[in-house]
């Protein structure tokens, strides 16, 4: 295989355009922060912009992984932000009530309780969607709104601060020179990949999302599959909630995980999973989440005025989505080629055109 | 007959999809006032030719001329403006809009930017009555059965024939596949009227009887190549089918005597007083191992409803079912599948295929669902099974990693059959398994049914074609007005005429 055909094979790969967008976005930082790609060891900890992006992007990656499975079933989960808040609030409450906040057993108890609460949230969403047949966007809107209230009740409307080294490990600590959060993300990502691709769960999820009635008639227990997806998504959000609260050693029922559901949905879409359900791509989702976190970082490093933050973000997202759309690329290429000679065959398949639809 | 100038002439049409030639150098001529059959097996290129003509797919080579003038049609809208209207195989209507809105969509009468609803309904109603139909135009399309929806789609396509610039070319892609005889007659009457007005009609159908009844000339395609253009009167059926499939029809013929073979298996399914309000009146039905029970009846007579009850796709509200001598409650498809029942729905696209998944995944789906998510089919076994069934059913292309949605109708149907055969069912319920697929695939599926029943599988076979039901079945159950009207042991004295009599009169005991 020569270089040209290798290149062509790479360009055909599903992750080619998301990864290209990510690299381009990273490169954009270099003129503003000359040492952007540098990573150095300080006090046995790795530091650098790249490390920060992964560290701060960790909660989003987790939430987006869970969201991917829910979206693949043809649903959506708007309540993940609220679950982040609930989980963080409950964990911080439990830790703060303890005499010795550093106690590992106490922190583990806090984690367990927080994740149990997340599980209940996911089961509730699953119940509404799969059992009662409520439209996912409405069903999860309930918890999106009510969940913030629940988080406020847990914290009694205050911001609970904790002072526990054990607790701050998951979101801010280091292990083997790397942020501990990285290991958590790697573990959850590997777990989801194994859970969906090593078993038949992925196939069944894609079938349910691709054609719900056909799946029923083929004997798939679609309800069970959907409940599992919502529970898994909520658990991911629960872990993200622990991370966020641990990172700042505080639980803020109002602001923790605010709007994270929208970023997560965006990450899923950028990663190549269609909002209409069916085929899903966990790897794409992770890249999508990194793109969004890089974008947030870039906004700060290149000094976009605060008022223009969201507009800048929107513009970049639109460009990323357009670049990924085979239909758009075909048009752009053809327009250029018309001036310069023969028309190249548009790359990609019609199936990929779905990306364009969701971005509009 | 002095040949007038063709209204449409396509020359040397080439179309490629991802390197595969769907059409290579096809010529096609259409004269005013003719009904022209476009024939060929599934995947022969009929639909592709139509889509190229109507601007859905861009042309890769060749020219299209209307009235001798070369035209470039690059979108369905342009095609419509050029006077080419199309009704596709799958009904393309907005289910939640009214019949009137659907018929006049894009042509709504407007004044000062507002739609004149009264006028809209009046015009739509006028079009409907002019075609001799009785449809309430203010009801939503979704509230009508598929057959009526098909008629609405046709009305929409010809709708502007009377008002707009005029439809010069009307393309009907499998319009009759979901119509019963009466409705087909209505359609044909309409086609004859349009033909008399000089409209050229392209008629795509797998029903040879209908082609010989309504068409003047025909163009036959095979594997994307033109194999002949003939006047219908000049080519016999046997020759036509030979042209289409490129081989002899012996395979079909040898099926002829099937029903004389006697099936004497054990009682497999026993339904007693099974029924569902609004679906089908309580009925009794026995199916034995190795027996083919054909369900005959008009569209809407309760054939599908009966089949769905046997599978648990719908819940029965009366009666009971014994499977293998054991009382069972069929609350959901799962309950039936677990006891060896398989069901192929008549709606391949909406209730069978998962188009985004690959052929391999679609084939494995039923088996995997039965095993549950924790026990995936091992990779080696999986590939072997899939390859085996792709070969056994001759699914084309024989590539398990192709998107199932990209296959032609007949091949999709084979994928779904493979899906169920993999589970080794005891009872296979087939609802219109041969609808909308070509002669070759049809014969293959019928042959498969025969050999499966010989191996001891019980089959419930539904088809709108009585000849097909009679050819395959040991027992024929006739349905009429959502009631099981008669059960007849098939034999030489059972003819389509006799079945039709029962369907018409409901008398037979």
Automatic annotation (TrEMBL), chain A:
Subcellular location: Cell membrane
Keywords of this entry: Cell membrane, Membrane, Transmembrane, Transmembrane helix
Tagged with keyword Glycosyltransferase: no
InterPro entries: ABC_transp_permease
Membrane-spanning ranges: 15-37, 49-71, 108-130, 137-154, 174-195, 227-244, 256-275, 282-304, 310-330
Topology in membrane: Multi-pass membrane protein
Residue ranges of the region described as Disordered: 339-360
CDD domains reported for this sequence: TM_PBP1_transp_AraH_like
Superkingdom classification of source: Bacteria
Pfam families registered for this protein in UniProt: BPD_transp_2
Name of the molecule in the record: ABC transporter permease
Biological classification of the source: Bacteria, Bacillati, Actinomycetota, Actinomycetes, Kitasatosporales
Automatic annotation (TrEMBL), chain B:
Domain of life: Bacteria
Coiled-coil ranges from the UniProt annotation: none
InterPro entries membership: AAA+_ATPase (IPR003593), ABC_carbohydrate_import_ATPase (IPR050107), ABC_transporter-like_ATP-bd (IPR003439), ABC_transporter-like_CS (IPR017871), P-loop_NTPase (IPR027417)
Family annotation (SMART domains): AAA
Pfam family, one: ABC_tran
GO MF annotations in UniProt: ATP binding
Domain ABC transporter: 8-248, 262-506
UniProtKB keywords: ATP-binding, Nucleotide-binding, Repeat, Transport
CDD domains: ABC_Carb_Monos_I, ABC_Carb_Monos_II
Name under which the protein is recorded: Sugar ABC transporter ATP-binding protein
